[in-house]
Amino acid sequence: MKKDYYETLGVSRDASPEEIKRAYRNLAKKYHPDVSPGNKEEATEKFKEISEAYEVLMDPNKRALYDQYGHEGVSGAFKQGNFTWQDFTHFSDIEDLFGDLFGGRGGGLFDFFFGEGFGGRTGTSQRRRATGEAGGNITVKLPLSLKEMTEGVEKEIRLKRFIKCPKCGGTGGKTATCPTCGGTGQVRKVQRSILGQFVSVTTCPTCRGTGVVIKEPCSYCHGEGRVKKEQKVKIRIPPGVAEGNYITLRGQGHAGPRGGPAGDIIVIIQEKKDSRFQRVGDDLIVKIPVSYKTLILGGEVEVPTLNSKRNLSIPAGTASGTKFRLRGEGITHLHSHGKGDIIVEVVLWTPRRISSKAKKLIEELDAVLGVPPKV
User: Fold this and answer.
1) What is the mean pLDDT of residues 226-248?
2) How many domains does the chain have?
3) Rounded to two decimals, what is the model's pTM?
4) Which residues have C-beta within 8 Å of that of residue 275, sequence separation ≥ 6?
5) Which of 46, 124, 153, 193 could form a disulfide bond with 148, CB atoms 3.0-4.6 angstroms apart?
């Protein structure tokens, strides 16, 4: 069983982003494998554990889902269902930390996470040229009716998002090798001291890690490599979703500047208020007003369902507040077979105004029935 993310970082559930970042940086110093050579395997696992917690708690959407649904709520946010280093998006928060502490090892920050310390190649590794800054995510709130939630539905939404520039293909224009880093995307800084030579590697500030600069900017996108356009997006909603569930459309968010990878569209499900039903899990609760005569003598009442109506038999002598269950008439189970139920609560209908004749008859009936038993 996974450990609670807040407990992993040693912060309270109402901790601010600054407190979370400070806690993570302190733990990163302690558990990075390069400072725990005696037990590198355990340190590697611990470092990954605190990084997973940091990734979730520093993202407002992921944190909200985790607070509401726990680890299950955020599993869909990870590309493989479980956290891997490909899901970690906060390298810049600790780049300076590792640049100072582990610069002597050589290589960029990428190597610290994906090189020999984390199961990558040993020895001299090939440098990867960064593709460019990633595009942002787009969060969409999608209200659905209970009927749409139980049956599933395909929705089409309109949104404005950055797409690759159609004129330059996302490059931003004619490019040239970055003069600062020579196309590597990294800048090395050598420092000498009495302890020896230390090399720190940082992202090139000129090209931002891409290895190229714009020589002649595209006239259409002005060198950005992307333009904003209103588009239609289709979203397929599976049966059984609930308030707070979310669907991630990978790579359909904003295109990144100058060929950078696109972000995602995160669709957060909202439940439209229903005038008849209250949803509890996959069950629906409905209150049906019933006459005094029906409760005393028995009879039938009409009960609404999501698709039609059903008749419900009320036995004689039923008390107000009694609940009946219509099986299989509720919400479809998500990723499973079957449905929940409709729970019918019958309540005595009390008219607000009555005639003098009705009042007299009620008083006569009350005298015949007698007083109710004492509790």
Assistant:
1) 93
2) 4
3) 0.58
4) none
5) 153
